[in-house]
Amino acid sequence: MSREPVLIRYFAWVRERVGLAEERLALPETVVTAGDLVGWLAERGDAYAYAFEAGDTIRVAVDQLHIEQDEPIGRPREIALFPPMTGG
Amino acid sequence: MDAGSSRIAVRVGPDDFDVGAEIAALQAGDPAVGAVASFVGYCRDEGGRLAALELEYYPGMAEAEIGRVAREAAGRWPLLAITVIHRAGRIRPGERIVLVAVSSSHRAAAFSACDYVMDFLKTRAPFWKKEHLAAGDEGGWVDAKPEDEARAGRWKGKTD
């Protein structure tokens, strides 16, 4: 059984490589942690494979809070995936 | 320390800011202020190579994460007020990108808190820079620097 679809947002070169700023996806129950999500997305096609080829460097925010890749995503409204930050 | 007693202002957007006015506003009408420390970050031209930076950010989270960093600083030092302004969009060499300004009764807290907020703004606030080159090409995305992580790591266990 799938969960409710979640808003997935992409930023910077992750957005450019995926070719989308956001999409709504029903995540399978096998996606438990942020790292599981990165791995699952990488399997969705060539653009995703390129975006997530260095998957362990990708940062994940759940409902606008940073989480580590070994942490569970829970049942959020929104998940964002992006490269390491370069502001300031 | 009670972070709730410090005034925290965070702004993110395309508009430039007036450094003098922001510093004056931190002091204005508060006779407890003895020190204001500030940091202004500018866009460099990288030796003439760069025409502009394009700053992308995550609206909502960027403001929230900077606010969390500011509240941590206010919980760590006796601060009166913190103002953080971060610009987004296209920024040319010589233009301001970021302001962190902190007021306190004494200088040590103001200096340390300003340094702390800047370190964690760089490693935690969701902003990304893309280069536009003077040669007319679109350059690449700027890579995160390991030394920024190392600088932020200095604060672990440190008390001032």
Automatic annotation (TrEMBL), chain A:
Pfam families per UniProt: ThiS
The organism of origin for this protein: uncultured Pleomorphomonas sp
SUPFAM superfamilies hit by this protein: MoaD/ThiS (SSF54285)
Gene3D superfamilies listed in its UniProt record: 3.10.20.30
Return the CDD domains for the record.
Answer: Ubl_MoaD
Q: Which domain of life is it from?
A: Bacteria
Protein name, UniProt field: Molybdopterin converting factor, subunit 1
Gene encoding the protein: moaD
UniProtKB/TrEMBL annotation, chain B:
**Gene3D superfamilies, per this entry?**
Molybdopterin biosynthesis MoaE subunit
Q: Give the EC number(s) under which this enzyme is classified.
A: 2.8.1.12
Q: Where is the composition biased (Basic and acidic residues)?
A: 144-160
Q: Which SUPFAM superfamilies match?
A: Molybdopterin synthase subunit MoaE
The protein's matches in InterPro entries, at most eight in alphabetical order, are given as: MoaE_sf, Mopterin_biosynth_MoaE
Q: Which domain of life is it from?
A: Bacteria
Keyword match Hydrolase = no
* CDD domains, alphabetized: MoaE
Q: Where is this region: Disordered?
A: 139-160
Q: Which reaction does it catalyse?
A: 2 [molybdopterin-synthase sulfur-carrier protein]-C-terminal-Gly-aminoethanethioate + cyclic pyranopterin phosphate + H2O = molybdopterin + 2 [molybdopterin-synthase sulfur-carrier protein]-C-terminal Gly-Gly + 2 H(+)
Q: Which keywords accompany this UniProt record?
A: Molybdenum cofactor biosynthesis
Entry GO MF terms: molybdopterin synthase activity
Give the record's GO biological process terms: Mo-molybdopterin cofactor biosynthetic process
Q: In which pathway does it act?
A: Cofactor biosynthesis; molybdopterin biosynthesis
Task: Answer whether the UniProt record assigns the keyword Membrane to this protein.
Answer: no
Q: Provide the assembly information.
A: Heterotetramer of 2 MoaD subunits and 2 MoaE subunits. Also stable as homodimer. The enzyme changes between these two forms during catalysis.
Q: Which PANTHER family match?
A: MOLYBDOPTERIN SYNTHASE RELATED
Family statement drawn from the similarity comment of this UniProt entry: Belongs to the MoaE family.
* Purpose of the protein: Converts molybdopterin precursor Z into molybdopterin. This requires the incorporation of two sulfur atoms into precursor Z to generate a dithiolene group. The sulfur is provided by MoaD.
Specify the protein name: Molybdopterin synthase catalytic subunit
Origin species: Pleomorphomonas carboxyditropha
